[in-house]
Amino acid sequence: MSHAAISDVLAGKYPLKETLTIKGWVRTVRSNPNFAFINLHDGSCFDPIQVIADSNLANYAEIAKLTTSCSLAITGTLVESAGKGQSFEIQATEVEIIGLVEDPDTYPMAPKRHSVEYLREHAHLRPRTNLIGAVTRVRNCLAQAIHRYFHENGFQWIATPIITASDCEGAGEMFRVSTLDAVNPPMKDNGEVDYSEDFFGKEAFLTVSGQLNVETYCCALSKVYTFGPTFRAENSNTSRHLAEFWMVEPEIAFADLATVASCAEDMLKYVFKAVLAERMDDLEFFDLRVQKGVVERLKTLTESEFVRMDYTDAIDILLKSGQKFEFPVEWGIDLSSEHERYLAEKHVGGPVILQNYPKDIKAFYMRLNDDGKTVAAMDVLAPGIGEIIGGSQREDRLDILDARMHEVDLNPEDYYWYRDLRRYGSVPHGGFGLGFERLVAYVTGVQNVRDVIPFPRAPKTASF
Amino acid sequence: MSHAAISDVLAGKYPLKETLTIKGWVRTVRSNPNFAFINLHDGSCFDPIQVIADSNLANYAEIAKLTTSCSLAITGTLVESAGKGQSFEIQATEVEIIGLVEDPDTYPMAPKRHSVEYLREHAHLRPRTNLIGAVTRVRNCLAQAIHRYFHENGFQWIATPIITASDCEGAGEMFRVSTLDAVNPPMKDNGEVDYSEDFFGKEAFLTVSGQLNVETYCCALSKVYTFGPTFRAENSNTSRHLAEFWMVEPEIAFADLATVASCAEDMLKYVFKAVLAERMDDLEFFDLRVQKGVVERLKTLTESEFVRMDYTDAIDILLKSGQKFEFPVEWGIDLSSEHERYLAEKHVGGPVILQNYPKDIKAFYMRLNDDGKTVAAMDVLAPGIGEIIGGSQREDRLDILDARMHEVDLNPEDYYWYRDLRRYGSVPHGGFGLGFERLVAYVTGVQNVRDVIPFPRAPKTASF
């Protein structure tokens, strides 16, 4: 017999007095000689459902001894809840014990508050906690909303390659991928490893971004996006960095910077609305237990107009702010988090899209503006976090692209295929990148991105 | 001014006589002294739209010289099409030339039939062809439908790790991920590389499957799935193998093999229906130019009942078939493609779900049946391809799991976290794996999986 999801039962999808079977894991049990109250959880929503098991059940003695995380199948009658909180509970007619917990006293997920560090060490069991369960459902909701947003707006999802042999910018921070014997790799006469004998016939790495690849599809299908894992071999042990993280990178043809900025604003509002509509149960938990105000912050963002501001104007505002910053402000600097947060939180009091940055602090592929000093780049700054999205219009003029590559010491021949897009029916186009874990951390208020991805990868960290 | 997607124009979403702007790339141009007929394509659907440019346009001389892949912005009036085929065309009032094609005579994607091998060498330009454009839209449609199916059915998407340091089965076929100096890695006294100095503090690899990891989330959230890249360092140069491919792996708690099989059948039918409903334009192209009958095959599958058959019965059928097989049939063999296709195509004449395979040809984690000889494994065999999905109920009994690990020489300690799932509230559960590229190849009729992923990775192949 098939069983009911607890989310459906609590949402009132079944009529009162119906006989139902539910299956899940015990959160808590309280018992007295007459009754046991079982809170059963199946992960389908934040709340467990309360089950009342009467002492006349044949296996009542075993039921009364159940502990957290024992697995059960319960059949019973759906009744109105007498207690406060929930509208429904189950009056059990049968409680089948499926799996017990070996030595409950040493069970690592015993029902008490655990530190996030402790939970990371038990990443295989932490989805059983309120915190990680809620993160998982919100993360799923956001991912589904992202796919849905792009699908509804005519974008094609493109699986850009994970393994790349392109000589890319930032190669120093890349992971090498190889099947060569690590102790005795084949060598060339000049003392270098002979990667022609490696699996791919050349040195290969894990991708740091799908952008250059996805531009090739953009220049044929107009609207495309990636949603896949990317990698940084940076030795950063911060709460905002992972060695392996998921990135969303849309790319739009026949688009200028304003179009790219509007897409970023629309997409964020769409996914925030989705999570407010679909996962209020989990959001209320985050608001109560993780970061006060996350719900209000999301609601405000969906209703705010994202203010557009030029980098040059932002520098003026910061200089005139009278504010003391750790890093001094002058035109040409890369803004740091304190500057970004001042602009979004203090000056504007809402989200800001900063535009037209100095070319020297931005990547070679960003489109040079007519002033010759700035490029058509944009960052979306959100209150409470600072930069959440970075994007740009791409340089679509071959001669200027080549000049920029020479300026930053890149060899245009290594990018022949990227250059071809500018030789054959070039079009203005642009896009942005959204670090998915940072989005999940922002929505949930969780401080460390290691707690919003199932099995975090970071320096000295690759367990499970 | 914003522009219209050609898919919307051809679908009749704009009224006749409306003034529209469309943007895209030239497929073909025919011109005479009075008119030019431009077929403009923007990737939003299979068909380009026909545009008529009158010779009284100011830049008519340039228009008449346009070649394939030049990029244009065209403004004009939507009119009924005089020709056959399409209902609508555009009477241009302005043709803005955005980007020309440098030396059209050497343009690699000149409008003629190219071999798939040639297209792979130009993977950055091949999305401009009918073939790869259609593959991309169908691939996107299938991916969206997969996410939608699981979302609608209460599954949570889980991003299982790409980099893994687990000592897994099949490590011989894994790619090593490292940041160590390849020429002079730090060495231990025993002559082995000292991976404690590597980025992750131990030897790390690219994942071959997210299944074991996703089981940890299944045993907390009940219904979960992965959809991400997986890797095999197999030196296989076949039309069915890639070194990097995307896999879909649902995992269901409180499920037996029958539930897993039903989920596989439901999911396949759901995504086949989606592609029939949404991408008939591309499917008709595949039917006409790639493989006759693909549309009929999909339609038939959505209406078929997938026949359940025991492995043992299948062996009997093959033995009694009178058929001459290259690989001889006896109980205990791993079926090869010729056997699977005989069963699906000749014997049943439709899809078959083969169940309960000999334990010795299946993985250690599959649930041992009461006969002690077979495991609760299943493969979905589809006409025209053979195995398209493989899955199983998982062994949820710790003692039997341990015994199986010893039998196949795995060290249970390496799997302590996997074993913990059986120690703490174990539940019957199971799932399956679907190779996404094989699904796309099956739906489109494209013979080689290298042509259904944007940038294929295979031995000696990692360009772009």
UniProtKB/TrEMBL annotation, chains A, B:
* Enzymatic reactions: tRNA(Asn) + L-asparagine + ATP = L-asparaginyl-tRNA(Asn) + AMP + diphosphate + H(+)
This protein's record includes keyword NAD: no
Localization (cell): Cytoplasm
What GO cellular-component annotations does this UniProt entry give? cytoplasm
What is a GO molecular function of this protein? nucleic acid binding
Q: Which InterPro entries match?
A: Aa-tRNA-synt_II, aa-tRNA-synth_II, aa-tRNA-synth_II/BPL/LPL, Asn-tRNA-ligase, Asp/Asn-tRNA-synth_IIb, NA-bd_OB-fold, NA-bd_OB_tRNA
EC number in record:
6.1.1.22
Swiss-Prot/TrEMBL GO biological process terms:
asparaginyl-tRNA aminoacylation
Every copy of the Aminoacyl-transfer RNA synthetases class-II family profile domain together lies at 137-454
Sorted alphabetically, which keywords does the UniProt record give? Aminoacyl-tRNA synthetase, ATP-binding, Cytoplasm, Ligase, Nucleotide-binding, Protein biosynthesis
Give the top-rank taxon of the lineage listed in the UniProt record for this protein: Bacteria
Name where it mostly resides. Answer: cytoplasm
Pfam families documented for this protein: tRNA-synt_2, tRNA_anti-codon
How would you summarize the oligomeric state and partners of this protein?
Homodimer.
So what family is this one in?
Belongs to the class-II aminoacyl-tRNA synthetase family.
Q: Which HAMAP family match?
A: Asn_tRNA_synth
| NCBIfam families according to UniProt | asnS, PRK03932.1
Tell me what this protein is called.
Asparagine--tRNA ligase
